Amino acid sequence: MTSQRKESVVLLIQCKDRKGIVARVSGFIHDFGGNILDSDHHTDEETNDFLMRMECSTEGLQIAPDQISEAFAPIAKVFEMRYEVHQTSRRTRVAMMVSKQDHCLADLLQRHRRDELRIDIPLIISNHDTCANWADLFKIPFAVCPVTKETKPEQERHVVSLLREQRIELVVMARYMQILSAEFLARVGCPVINIHHSFLPAFIGANPYRQAYERGVKIIGATAHYATQDLDEGPIIEQDVIRVGHRDTVDDLVRKGRDLEEIVLARAVRRHIERRVLVYGRKTVVFD
Amino acid sequence: MTSQRKESVVLLIQCKDRKGIVARVSGFIHDFGGNILDSDHHTDEETNDFLMRMECSTEGLQIAPDQISEAFAPIAKVFEMRYEVHQTSRRTRVAMMVSKQDHCLADLLQRHRRDELRIDIPLIISNHDTCANWADLFKIPFAVCPVTKETKPEQERHVVSLLREQRIELVVMARYMQILSAEFLARVGCPVINIHHSFLPAFIGANPYRQAYERGVKIIGATAHYATQDLDEGPIIEQDVIRVGHRDTVDDLVRKGRDLEEIVLARAVRRHIERRVLVYGRKTVVFD
Amino acid sequence: MTSQRKESVVLLIQCKDRKGIVARVSGFIHDFGGNILDSDHHTDEETNDFLMRMECSTEGLQIAPDQISEAFAPIAKVFEMRYEVHQTSRRTRVAMMVSKQDHCLADLLQRHRRDELRIDIPLIISNHDTCANWADLFKIPFAVCPVTKETKPEQERHVVSLLREQRIELVVMARYMQILSAEFLARVGCPVINIHHSFLPAFIGANPYRQAYERGVKIIGATAHYATQDLDEGPIIEQDVIRVGHRDTVDDLVRKGRDLEEIVLARAVRRHIERRVLVYGRKTVVFD
Amino acid sequence: MTSQRKESVVLLIQCKDRKGIVARVSGFIHDFGGNILDSDHHTDEETNDFLMRMECSTEGLQIAPDQISEAFAPIAKVFEMRYEVHQTSRRTRVAMMVSKQDHCLADLLQRHRRDELRIDIPLIISNHDTCANWADLFKIPFAVCPVTKETKPEQERHVVSLLREQRIELVVMARYMQILSAEFLARVGCPVINIHHSFLPAFIGANPYRQAYERGVKIIGATAHYATQDLDEGPIIEQDVIRVGHRDTVDDLVRKGRDLEEIVLARAVRRHIERRVLVYGRKTVVFD
Questions:
Q1: Which end of chain C, N or C, is less packed with Cβ atoms under 10 Å?
Q2: How confident is the model at residue C171, as a pLDDT?
Q3: Taking Cα atoms as reference points, which of B104, B43, B24 lies closest to residue B266?
């Protein structure tokens, strides 16, 4: 996946399936002297949705990357495509939202510092000040936005304004323990990735580890998904699991789950940042 | 786990926790000259349930294995224990119930032939004749008991009578696609293990692979559990999972799931047969 | 992966990387009215090897599938490609080779009967007669070719002649416990897939489960690879693993390993049959 | 596993197997009014080694925990046991050794801060100053002990003296990229846990990710083991694995491996700290 580290352009395309799309798009790239590094597509045969990701090197490309989108418009029109052009050299601007538990935040910040992820993090937002030390350590602005039932609409408007000021392109809920309102999601203007601490759709809602403990499952999981208005129902990006046994208390599930949450969330963020995820209906296509 | 292959006796115990149980039980074994091969116990701190499995060699044991149960009764009385004594040299009499899909049945029969499991299979029951060839191949009596909505009570009574005639000690639903009635379960007189083709509690009920496909999960699972009156709510014995992706159709999930179902069911049966599973409440303790 | 079930053609291509390959190949398909169902490629940046798999529907294709190879030749010449055209409707002719242990053979035969794999199995070869019952059950010719140190050259020549008579396109060593000579591999005329009962490159050679037991590993594995002259050094197609513990004896490792061997071998065969595997150097690319 | 959080005493025992050990030891606990929380043992039937872990509550115990060892001596003599008594309320004194890569160190420090592990970390030793910031953040003394081929004997003596000064009971090599000499291991006076970045015994020695890449394996692993004189040959405590594919470069393997290394090392340290690991020969017994 180090193709990301070369200067390259990713084209994400979505339309109804018909003949000739791949040939037309790869011909477009070829006409501008581009070298296709990676290309993958998927057709959902039940819905006839066509989804595609094509990554090409900018080396020798005879068009400025920021003009590709316009140049591609006529093809998109023919096939009635929704599409997006992304330059991998451009770092995605990511805001973290967090409550008191810091493990997912700390994990992402360390991956960021190791330059595992092509992102900038201009902002961390929290309803508590517990995680301020991490913001200090990594020298990232930290906005404490407390919230109560009464102040929630106002707090959310404030959060949206902070996100917009910073031109945030992705919000990561790194264990932000508040439910975002439909209004917030409508106004936020960028995707929001959430980590849910269960193997969805099992154990929706509060206290999933307690629920898992009481049901006596032998495996627990974590799920990263795009936040939508329907709580824990958003399109799933990544899941993973770990074995548990009768000796594990709820606290043990919480502890084992933390490792899962970190890893699953980090994988989901990575895939999103590399523009490997396309959403259609309630589902995702992930081009690894 | 080859301790099973030596002549040994397994003692399964369940009671409320208090001091001295382990010392008392191991003293009992020691007094008869028994050598403890394996010993494990668990205390549920929320419910104060104590559950124990002790396996001892019969070599040098100064009591006939079939008299242990009686000899142990006074201790059981003191601690108000429920207990069970099992000689591992005694093969458990298992009946298979199956519908049209044969993979779990075929898998268990092959494990049986390789002598992986200390069982006898005196009976296979099916509501169809599709799997008769496997019964023929392994020379096992095969009872076709067709069932319709109307004939279900009668069919179940007939099945129970067949199981009793054969003194069956464990019923394995190897993809038997009928819901057993509460009456059947009350009258069957032995445990019933079922394999559900999902990662419970996700996707309870019909067509779990179709449900999983539509939800867009990234991992599917299978769950072996004891059948209870509440469909798919019985105590879980074993679960396992496998990754799926957007290219997998429902048929692919079914195909990948088959491997899981076989393995998960076989592990559950093995553990039950070796008397490694204790049920309390909705949960199991599995002493591996 | 049910795209395999539609009538389709797979094009496998290998050459040194340069610009325009994807555009040229997808243009070729498009010119004949083909619809690209699936397309994936990989460039090894260290070696500059380019490897590609393209699958297109035959529906509406304005060229007979068996003429594609000839029509493609000029393009292949320009890029100095090695290539292969495969019609997915054509069943691959597979021979099984087996010794005394039957689990991998039985597993593949059952998958075959369920039509999981688009193959014909016109021949099972064994150095023993132990597995004859499976051949009988599935009505497949079974050739017993005993082998000793002295008769090995002769036996191998006989096996090659049997394979050729049946126009075998893939040999699957389903726990055939003989080392194939370099001469055999040179003369067999088709790929040979072997299952090794360890996580290669750990525990090369004889008795890998005993080796694993003595080293005290916490996980064991199985590896499916193409057989080459260097024992257990061939390009790896698939691996999988399972946890083991201190209670597991060598026999337990053997038992747990059997499940792994079956699944890993079946996956490797499936991928090969679907023409998803390309070999270069000691490695494979697997386009899932 | 929260039994650790109660005040309890762990008894670790090792001897040749004979009858009556379990009864004798549990009787010993019972005589002092102890309640056995957890008890597990294992007999290696090939070597006749008996290994046991018994954990009992100190609540109501009629002997001071620090006198148990002496009181147990007569029993140990009869059975010729090696044994160890550990009070779980006593935090184990752990020193970290690290080079330039900080991920395992940072991970363990965060687990420490969350109080996942009952340890004190009075000392971090490194041959570089790269990780000093973590020591600062967690306010732990950081000793830079540079090493060259020439100064190695002297540096190791210095390290041993630092460890002794701090009465260290466990050394954790959290990616310390120096080979410890036999002399160091003989003089260190406590166990040393190392994390090797491969699935041992595959890819012993330098650059295991590069080796794995070149061999084309489909799964990579990490292994935590006790350091012994034979490099990468020490008794294995824990292993885990992750899938890789042809798209993964060596850098990707390194990145994926980091997550594995952290988790595998943390599990090994946890098990050691909870006195769940017993070493015999080249192997371990891990009582989970």
A1: C
A2: 98
A3: B104
A34–chain C nearest CA distance, Å? 7
* In the block, residue with structure tokens 């200390």: B118
Kindly determine whether residue A285 and residue B246, on different chains, have CB atoms separated by under 8 Å: yes
Contacts (Cβ under 8 Å, ≥6 apart) of A270: A116, A117
| Single-letter amino acid, residue A114 | R
Lowest mean pLDDT among A88-92, B159-163, C21-25, D274-278: C21-25
Name all chains with 3 or more CB-CB pairs below 8 Å to chain C.
Answer: A, B, D
Peptide bond into C201 cis (omega under 30): yes
Structure tokens at D197: 């970045």
* Chain C CB contacts of D40 below 8 Å: none
Tokens 């096996």 belong to which residue?
C159
Find the residue in D nearest to A266 (Cα): D259
- Amino acid D3: pLDDT: 39
> Is it true that the peptide bond before B191 is cis, omega within 30 degrees of 0?
no
Task: Answer whether B97's CB lies under 8 Å from B166's CB.
Answer: no
What CATH code would you report for B92-286? 3.40.50.170
Contact A36, A29 (CB under 8 A): yes
Contact D43, D49 (CB under 8 A): yes
Residue A245, chain D, CB below 8 Å: the answer is yes
CA-nearest of B98, B96, B75 to B27 is: B75
Q: Measured between alpha carbons, how far is C3 from B286 in angstroms, rounded to an integer? A: 42
Give the helix ranges, DSSP H, for A114-207.
132-137, 152-165, 182-187
**Whether residue A1 has pLDDT greater than 80:** no
Rounded to 10°, the helix A103-113/D103-113 angle is: 160
Domains C2-87 and C92-286 in one fold: no
Rounded to two decimals, what is the model's pTM? Answer: 0.95
Domain ranges of chain D: 2-87, 92-286
Of residues D175, D191, D190, the one with CA closest to residue D264: D175
Phi, psi of B272 (to 5 degrees): -65, -50
Closest Cα of chain C to D242: distance in Å?
A: 10
Supply the residues of A annotated as catalytic.
232
Q: A 35-64 residues with CB below 8 A of C?
A: 35-41, 43, 45, 60
Distance in angstroms (rounded) separating the CA atoms of residues B65 and B58: 7
pLDDT at position D5: 54
How many other C-beta atoms lie within 10 A of the C-beta of residue A230? Answer: 10
Question: How far A112 CA sits from the closest chain C CA (Å)?
Answer: 25
**Measured distance CA(D179)–CA(D175) in Å, rounded:** 11
- Residue C100, SS3 per DSSP: coil
A248, A249, A255 member nearest D116 (Cβ): A255
pLDDT of residue B3: 39
CB contact (8 A) between residue D288 and residue A247: yes
Separation of alpha carbons C262 and A282, rounded Å: 35
Rg (CA), chain D: 20
Per the rule left: phi > 0, alpha: psi between -120 and 50, beta: everything else, A60 is left
Give the class (CATH, top level) of D2-87.
Answer: alpha beta
Structure-token match 């129902």, residue found: A233
- Residue D27 and residue B29: Cβ atoms within 8 Å? no
Q: Supply the pLDDT for residue C261.
A: 98
Q: Report residue D10 as tokens.
A: 């762990």
Extract the tokens encoding D52. 């046991």
Q: Which residues of C touch D282 (CB under 8 A)?
A: 214-216
Tokens of A92: 């995605």
Q: Touching check for A13 and chain C: CB below 8 Å?
A: no
- Does the beta carbon of C228 lie under 8 angstroms from any beta carbon of chain A? no
Partners of A288 on chain D (C-beta within 8 Å) are 245, 247
Out of D214, D218, D235, closest to residue C239 by CB: D218
Compare all CA atoms of chain B with the CA of A279 and give the residue at the minimum distance. B216
Q: Which residue out of C40, C115, C232, C259 is catalytically annotated?
A: C232
